[in-house]
Structure formats: structure tokens, C-alpha cells
Amino acid sequence: MYRKLLSAVALVLVLPLMLFAQDGKLRGTVTDSQSGEPLIGANVIIDGTSLGSSSDINGEYIILGVPPGSYTVKASYIGYAPVTISNVRVNSNITTTQDFQLSSTAIQTGEVEVIAARPLIQRNTTNTVRMQTQDDIKTLPFRGLQNIIALSAGVVQQDGTLYVRGGRAGEVAYFIDGATATNPLYNSEGISPIQEAIEEIQLQSGGYTADRPGANSGSVQTTMRTGSSSALKVTFDYQTDDFASPGEQFLGTSARGYRNVVATVSGPVPMMPSLRFFLAGQHNFLRNRTHMFIEPFSFENLTTDGFGTWPEGTALPGPVEMKQNYLYKNWRNENTVQGTLLWDAQPFKVRFSGSYTNLELPTGRSMPTGLNNLLWQREYRNETNSYLGNLRLTHVLDSKTFYEVGISMMRRDFLAYDPDYEHNWTQYSDSAAARRKGYIMADGSTGFQTRYLGPPNYSVIYAFGLTHEYQVNNAYEKNDQQNIGVTIDFTSQVNSQWEVKAGGRIDTWSMSQFRVGDISSYNTFLDNPGTYFAADSLAAFPERALEYDLTIQRRGVMNIYGYDSKGHRIDEGFDGPRKPLFASAYIQNKFEFDDLVLNAGVRYELFDMKNVAPTNYVDPTWNEDINYFADQESQLKETDPVHLLLPRVSFSFPVTDNTVFYGMYGKYAQYPVLDRLYDGTRQLAARISPRSRVGYSLGSSPAGTGFLVSPERTTQYEVGIRQTLTDNFAFTATGFYKDLRDQIQQNRIYNSAGVPIFVAYGNSDFGTVKGLELTFELRRTNRVQARINYTLSDARGTASNPSSSRNAVSDGSGTSTLFPSFINPLDYNQPHRGSILVDYRWGKGDGGPVLEGFGANFLMTFNSGHAYTKIKEPENLGQASPWNIGVRPIIDPRTRNPVEPLNSSSTPWVLNVDLNASKVFYFEGFTAELYVNVLNLFDTKHVDNIFPNTGTPTDDGWLRSPLARSYVATENYADFYRAVNIDNRHAYIGATGNDIFGTPRQIRVGLKLEI
Known about the structure:
This protein has 1011 residues and is mainly β. 10% of the residues lie in helices and 44% in strands. The strands form twelve sheets. The protein has a 22-stranded antiparallel beta barrel. A five-stranded mixed beta sheet has the order 3-2-5-6-9, with no helix packed on it. It has a five-stranded mixed beta sheet with strand order 10-17-18-13-14. Strand 30 and strand 31 form a beta hairpin.
């Protein structure tokens, strides 16, 4: 019934409705320059396109469906001199106003040409829209969409993660040319655009109108560039920092072995002027992908200490040492091809966008494992292939009505593997296979403890572990996510004041995962399964097949769906892929008057996670012999879909050409990261098993099952003012408030007697966020251009992430709960954050032969630090090792004893300066630009985090503790502990996944050619 209903809804949307998702609108008036009277029937056309319109009885014209970009627009009228205005910027899904004043040919005999200045304030937008064009980003000293977005007011970038207006990580949706570019398995950017291929980036962070899809905190819409209709253009850009060997310094800077090459070609297709293309290719390589402050050290002639398997005194195969700011075998290699093809054949317009990326990198080489694996000679590699294909058809029905249909495909294939054996993963831990590959020790052995158990690791200086040089890879994973998306949108300009939009979208996914965590145990069992599971026994007792398969999965520590235990595809059933479906429909009305712009709409959202859930999770019918469902088909079901109606209203008051007030209210919803919520059926059974379930479990990762989760919800409010102070200077002030509800958190699940039986994610967290955003923009004046962003915010909630309450889950007893029911500052709360960009440059023909084409910009970013909780220093060793005792309270919250209310303290202020300087040389037919980018100009050791038990970045408190005396007495212990844990934060990074310090200075030199 549900499928029929969905099909009917889709059919209803397809037949009569459809809208534009990416294009903008150009409107204005055409008047007599002397009398101000409207000119009826004046022609307004956009050069290089087939787009145009005529003015009505009021002299007003409207051109719909204009792709984002800068255009030359021409107005003409009989008896009047034409007026041409160049550099008219049209933005995605935003109305651009451009008026024309024409003079009679009796007064003006020649055509008038004007260069338009970009408006400093948006008069027709009713919510906060942060826009960056290619001109804005091409001189930034860094690369990457995430880094560009982080410059916007309201955005916090902490430890490499984006948080928008106090929302949690993963609350930003990404779109490219209207197609989904978000991977919901991780709620991350699934497709990353090449910077030179970007026409425009729009971040909507204060809520968005009903026609805009998105997430709870932000929506990032990227529009890709298209080629010119008049000329072929070729560019080439190469930049590098590779001026020093690993561990050495160049101008006081460590090279990362950075190499980035981008080539683009664009223009009209020969012999087909209505067909334009843009093609970009990028090669990005880093010899050292994790750029961090590393203090060099070297310990030679170390021997084993007897705590491990190796006899005491066994010599290591080499020194334990690290070079300055360099991690061994920590490279990253990425290659991307992206392009667009636009066919303008009015009344139809067809646009195709495509992207392919291949990314490879070895794992286990970043800190902290980069130190433990220092001696390890084998490699474990990750490879990701990402694809996007997006086809959109626009049909202009008349000058005021058109529709757009889009279909897109996105796919991501991930593989974590041993490159020696690739997909033959059963050989990873086989000593016979290792011998064939030549992994042989000096004594002629492979060092394996058994056929399937690799060489033991080394233990030195009181049980510090170092991986054996021929240790095996004992895990294998492959997963894939593929999406088919359909968008149908319709727009009609009913009259000059009323625009109606309606439409919808469907995104259907197929997600499969094969993850084996212990190949050694898997092989050991298969090699000797015992008489019960011997081949003849399985043939005689076929009912044992399920038990045999479950045993294989348990021995291999598998979590699989869409695959069987051998790694073969399964397409249907509860063991098949997870196939979430997200669908939406909306209707949006926009009223544009001289003194009021009103957007009123409602969005319908269908969230169908299609997770696998037990029909009775409290007291399931259980097969005790195999510890599994007695009948999988009758005891499992798909989770129910969720239907939501989300109203959104926003307005703006253009009081004058220089002052605009605006405000909005809206409701939003999204599902959290699906990777936390999806389990294979074997894993699901283990979590809820009446025989083995535990109501306080912290051991699994993620530590909870997700079949009880509903969408997380947000209600957003904002009010603001946009004000032009001079012809070239403007500011915007925005106040916002967010009510966060139904955020997920680990919870105990109870039976009817009130006894906790297992752990699951539920929608128990809540919070509030309020803040003020200020932006200042100085349009280029006397060679100077500047932008300032500042945010004052307060983000509070019951928890900062879905696992924050794991301590309460672990330590609670009976029906008592320790879950917080009041709000505190969130971990990523940064009360003050901002950026200042000042750009000064000479243009072509300006400054004489020396200064012509020279320019530089300084980008200063600052923040007041983030919240943390001070805790007591360790008072006993407990379950800690002598190498992680300083951060044990971070690893195990049961040992954490706060000395103040939650998140009452803050890390230090951070101030960073980046620099870009360039010199353009102008030649006949082409230009050449030499440039240098310097990140962290002053090489400041920014303190991003601290040890919470001492409140400092340079002391975890352990070595000065009386408890450490017996360990300090061990030879090399104090020096080694200080080198790895204090100077180089080994244990801290292992406990948190984050570094204490920011990145060192980087100097990149580049050459850009444009033909």
C-alpha cells in the first residue's frame, strides 16, 4: 500500500509540476532616463544566451531560469539608444535586480555601455545566504570546500569538523548543480568539487525556504562552471611545497611533499555554438598527509622488555625515531575529473554535470599508530572511488513559466585492503602466503606463531607496543553506497509580484557492507571446524548451515549486510543491502513588492530508513542452541517510514535601496549518521540476545543499535538587517535562535520489570543555540577589498555527540538514570569566532611595469577556544597502562572525576594569519601568474585542545605524580614517555582522535597559465 501511495505521489508531481533548483532570476524596470516613465515593450536580452524578455505596462521585465554567473545584459527600445550593462551577477535561486534608464536618440546617439558593480546587500533574499563566487575564492591561500565554508559567519571548524550555528557534526547537506552530493551513511561530503570548477557556492545556515532541501543546520549548494559561448579557454595551475627532504626545513618550514596540478579547458563545441562545455582535471598528492608539529627524537639499540611474547633482550630491527614534522609512509594520492556540458536549444535547455574521483592512502601511518607501526614493513591501504552523473532538462513553456526535471546518480566504493593480496583476504594472515611474498626473517622463518597467527609485536620500556616488521593485516572491508535521485520542479511568475514554485525530489539508496575484523580466527576455524561442522556433517544435517554461517561470522568478527560471509553479493531480504529512501514535496509562494518580500511555504518530508528491526526486541522468540532468532523471516521487519510537514515563513523589508530588514521561522528534520544505526542481522541478534545481551555494554562500536531512532528536529528563528553605509561599504547583522530536539543518544532499553537489557540509540537529547552574526564588506576601492565576519554564539545541550552519555549507560543500575536533563555548553561551543580578509592588488594597466598585476591578501582567523571540563589528575593506575595513564579518563569516562560543572572551562584563544601574494604577467593572448601561499604565516603553535586534567597543552600530569616513581626508575621510560606523549601527544591523539596543536607553517609556490 505504501509503495502504491509513493508511486501515486511521484506521478502527481511528475505530470503537472516541476521547478528550477539551480537557476536564478533577473528582473528590473526599463524607464525613460529623463521623465522616469516606464517604457512598454522594451527588449531585454542576456548576451551569449537565448534568454530575454520584454517590459510590461509598468516597464517591468522578468527573465527566469538564468544559470548562475556574470553576464552582459542589453536593453533596447525603438527611438532610444541601447544600454548594455556588463558584469551583472546572477546567483542561484536568488532574484537579481537590474534597472535600465534609456535616453532618446535625440539626446543620446550611441550605445551606452556600463559595468555593473555587484550589489553589497541582497534586497530580495529573506534568510541568510552566504555566497562565494569563483572571483572570491581564486586568491584564497588554501583549497577545499570545507575550508571555504569555514570562513562564513556562524560556522565553526574544530578539529577538522564543521559545526553550523551550534548544530552537531553531520548536519550539513551538500548539493552540486541541484543533485545530492551528501553520503547519508556518514552525513559527509560525498563529492568534492575542484576549486577551479566552481562557479558559485551558497551556504544557507539560518534556515531555508521550503523549496530548498537540506539538513538541520546548513545547506551547501555548489554550482559548477560552464564554458563561454564565444571562445575557447585553457588554464593550467601547478603548486608545490616540495623544496626540502622529509624531516628537513626550508625557510623554517617543513615540506609536506605537496603537489597539486589543475588543468581546465572550456568553451563552445566546434561547429555547435549552442553547445558549451567545461572540463577540469586535478592531481593532488601529499607525501605527508597529516601535517602536525612533531618534535624529532631517536632511541637506538632498544630491546624487548619481557612483557610480550618475545624473550627479554631481543633486539629491535632498527631505531625508534621520528623526524621533524614528518610521518613515515603517510602519503595521499587523489585524482579527479569533473565537467559540465550545456546545450541551449530554446525552449529546452539540457545540462549534464559529471565527476569521478579516485583516492588512495595507506592507513596506520598517522599518529598515533604511525609511531607504533614505525618498524612495520607491510601496508594496509584505503581506496575510494566516487562518481556523480547529473542530467537536468529545463523546458521554458512561456516567458513566465518553466519546469525542470533532473535525474542523478552518485556512487561511492570503498575498500580497505592489503595491496599484496587485494580481494584474496583469506590469505592476509596465512603464513604460507607470507612466505610466497618473501616476508621472511633472518632465521628463515616467517615469525608466525601459528599458521594463521602472525608474528607477535615487540614490547619495550615497560610494555610499549611496536608492530613487528612482518605483522599481518588482519582485517578487510568493502562497502558501497549508490544513489538514484530524481527532482521535479516547476516555477511560474503568476504576475509581477507573485511567484509560485512547487515540486519534489526522491533519493533512493542502496548500501552494502562487508567488514571482517579477525581474519586469523576466521581462517583458524575454517581450517579445523571440528566434526560437528565437518563437510560430511553439514551434508547430513543441512539444518546446521545457519549455525555454521553464524559461527563463521562470530569468529571473523563480521558485520555485514548486502553480502554473505564469503563476501558474495546478496541483493534482497534482511541480509541484503540497506535501501533508505528520502522523498519530499513542497509548495512555495514568493511575493515581491517594493517594500516587502514574503516567502511562505511548506515542505513534506518522507524519511524511510528501511532498517532491520526485531518484531519483539524485549522478549524475542529465541533459538538458544545457536543464540539467534528462532525464525528470522517472522521475527524481523523493516522500520516504519516517518512523515513530516515542515512549515517555513520568511520575509524581508527593503525599506530603502540601502536598508533591508529580514526574518524567518522554519522547522527542519534529518536522520543522523546511518552508519551508527545499521547492523547486519548477526550483529543485531548479538545486541538483543536474551542469552548474551548486556544493559550496560560499552564494548561494541558503535555502542548501540539504531532501529528505534527517529529523525532529529530543529526549529530555527532569525532576524537581521542589511545596511549599505557608503557606495562601497555595507554590513549585515543577524540574530538567530535554534531549538534542538530529538537528537540521538545511547540509552538503556528496559524490560517490563524495569531491568535494563541492552543499549540502543534513542532520541533523548535536546539543546538550544543563540547567537549574533556580523559581516562587513568593502567593495574594491582604491585597490583595496575587505571582508570581515564575526560570530558571537552560545551553543548548549544535554550532550555534544551521540555517545556522550556512555558513562551513564555503563554506570547506571536498576531503573536509576544518570542521563543529563539540563543543558550545558557543548564541546564545540566557541563563543567568539571570526575572520578578516584584506586584499590589495593592482589590475591590468595599473601601477606601472613593476606593480601591474601584483596583489596580496592577508587572512586572519580567530576564535576564543572551545568548552571543556577540568578533571582530577589520576589517583591510581586502575585499568590504565603506564603509556595512557595521563589520558585514561578520556578513554574511560568511568574514571573521569570532574572538578567543576560540565564544560565550564575554555581552551585558549587562537589567532592565525595566512598569506597569498601573486604577480600576473600579461602577454598577447595569455597571462601567467606566479604566486605563493603561506599558511600559518608566523608558524604559531596554536593550542586547539588541552589535557583536561591539567588544563595545559604540555603536561598530562603523570610524570610528576607519586604513582609514576616506579616507572620512572625504568631505563628510558621518562625520556620516552616525554618524547611520545608530551612532545608528540601520542596517547592524547589515540584517546580523542584529535591533536592538541594546530598545523605548522606551510609555504606553497605556484604557477598559473591562462590562455
